[in-house]
Amino acid sequence: MENYSDAPIGVFDSGLGGLTVMREIMRCLPDENIIYFGDTARVPYGSKSRDTIIHYVEQILHYLEEQEVKAIVVACGTASAYALEAVRHKVSVPILGVVRPGVRAAAAITKNGKIGVIGTEASVKSGLYESLLHKINPELKVCSVACPLFVPLVEEGLWRDEITTLVAKRYLTSLKEAGVDTLIMGCTHYPLLEETIREVMGSEVRLVNIGVETAKVLSRILSERGITKKTLDAPPVYRFSSSDAPEKLCRFGEYALSMTIPEAVRISIEDY
User: Fold this and answer.
1) Torsion angle, CA of 54/44/200/125, rounded to 10 degrees?
2) Which of 54, 62, 190, 194 is geometrically suited to a Cys-Cys bond with 272, CB 3.0 to 4.6 A?
């Protein structure tokens, strides 16, 4: 690309939840071009093995590098937890996940030292959140709960539904009883359930949106490397792709991004 700083940012997720991270990047870096890929043919990652997740992520990275992106955001809590460190050395551009930014924010804002983590089965099983939080402060008390039904509920658009509320109460009761004052929403789908989660947990519990924190870190990385977009007289270009059912991405994106997505392209990701 003639002007490398104008190259797009690549953002990917196992499905559509990563659009919540893209939304925060758009807010934080409104001039940047972005390519989004949702691996909708293979969602959810949360029930897959570590080796399978790494394989999927490697394929997606090959695709994004072919698109000449200048940075990559792993907008998936499970992929960030299981695959990021294994693949970091395989790409030539800055790559960041959503786990570490969320961890740092939670450690900074907790008042009573009791932090809750909700995520997919795989991300909770990885123990990465607990490990990173205890590296920051060994005295922190961390309570993690897997919420496997949240992703399909979000993907089906059941964000404000009595079924979702019942499921949330089932998952979150132990965290309330543990007295956590800070809750990391450790999956990028979960901000779309924020109202329900807040109702169940109570207004006094601080919710950490990992997309918001990741966008802040990305902004700093681009600035430090001098690769923020330079051509500001042209509007940002957003491109969307998925491994299956691109029309669903378009519909879902209208709610997640509050904008019309005229087209999403289906990518045969297995070819990468």
Assistant:
1) -40
2) 62
Sequence ranges of the domains in the chain:
4-97+212-271, 99-210
Q: Are the folds of 4-97+212-271 and 99-210 the same? A: yes
Instruction: Name which CATH class applies to 99-210.
Output: alpha beta
CATH number of this structure's domain 4-97+212-271: 3.40.50.1860
The question of whether 187 is a catalytic residue gets the answer: yes
- Specify whether the CB–CB gap between 54 and 86 falls below 8 A: yes
φ/ψ of residue 148, rounded to 5: -65, -25
Q: How does pLDDT run across 213-237, given as a tens digit for each residue?
A: 999 999 999 999 999 998 888 899 9
Question: Is 19 in contact with 40 (CB distance < 8 Å)?
Answer: no
pLDDT tens per residue across span 81-105? 899 999 999 999 999 999 999 999 9
Predicted confidence at residue 234, as pLDDT, reads: 86
Pairing assessment for the beta strands 71-74 and 9-13 based on DSSP bridges: parallel
- Take residue 43 and report the two structure tokens written for it: 């969602």
Q: Which of 143, 147, 187, 250 is catalytic?
A: 187
Residue 76 a catalytic site member = yes
Q: Could you say which of 76, 143, 147, 250 is catalytic?
A: 76
